[in-house]
Amino acid sequence: MKFADILKEAFALSWRYKWFWLAGFAIYPQLVGGYPFDFQYQPGDEFPMRHFLIIMAAGMMLAVLTLLAGAFLHPALILATSNARAGTPIRAGEALRSGFDYFGRCLGLALLWFGCGILLFIMLGIPLIIAFINSVILGVVVAFFFIPVALAVAILLTAVMNYAYRNIVLLNMNLGDSISRAFQQFASAKMAAAGLTFTALLIPIIAITPVSVIFTMTQLAVHVASNDSSLALGAFYFFAVVLSIPLAGYFGAFSNVLFTIAHYEWFLRERSDSDAPKF
After folding, report:
1. Residues 122, 127, 129, CA angle at the centre, nearest 5°?
2. Residue 73 CB contacts under 8 Å (≥ 6 apart), including other chains
3. Mean of pLDDT values over 203-210
4. C-alpha to C-alpha distance for 171 and 164, rounded to whole angstroms
5. How far is 129 from 72, CA to CA, in rounded Å?
6. Pair 51, 277: CB distance under 8 Å
7. What's the pLDDT at 234?
8. How far is the C-alpha of 278 from the C-alpha of 272, rounded, in Å?
């Protein structure tokens, strides 16, 4: 199956089943164009520590809730996509109940991925920040070497995690075996996996960018007008609900569906050598 056909089917399936959007939004809340918080600080001012800690706590709570929700919503979407493609679609409730059967393994996988992300930031992100603090030129030089490495590792981790999810759900593998097989699957078709991952990440970002611009412009309008400008704040929340959430939900579901279709076509369906994974 050509990648263009996989892409087309992912768009169609994500559009057909609207409950996928709710799951997609819960799994990928970071796709929302913006959130209504206000943090202002300028060098020389007193640092608003209390406000900063509140925002950090809210961010941590959102991250924890996202990990917990994804541990059963990822397998629910994978099962629902697989059944829909087989011509035996299942209801949202049935998919969600089945998703809980894989909760422990998928949560363990998500925690491993999260830990690897933190380790990557410590190893590459912190030295880059320190380099920029010392010298802009040094920071640019370090970034020139670090950013490509960070992108390559991020693509590898994202592809392996998504393959492992599907090995757990579709092949009922344990956590260790699913990750081992995912690395083998990535190694067997590196360019296809990289292209798939890049597409799954890039298309939602492109789609959400106009909404992010609207969020930014609306927030600026709030600051310019006044803190008591209920009209500007109302417009901000309106755009948050009406535009951002459905888009985030649809494209969050799209990323999940895209990986599920590609994983089946490339690694599970019987195929000849001429049908090897291609991007």
Report:
1. 100
2. 23, 26, 27, 96, 99
3. 78
4. 10
5. 36
6. no
7. 64
8. 13
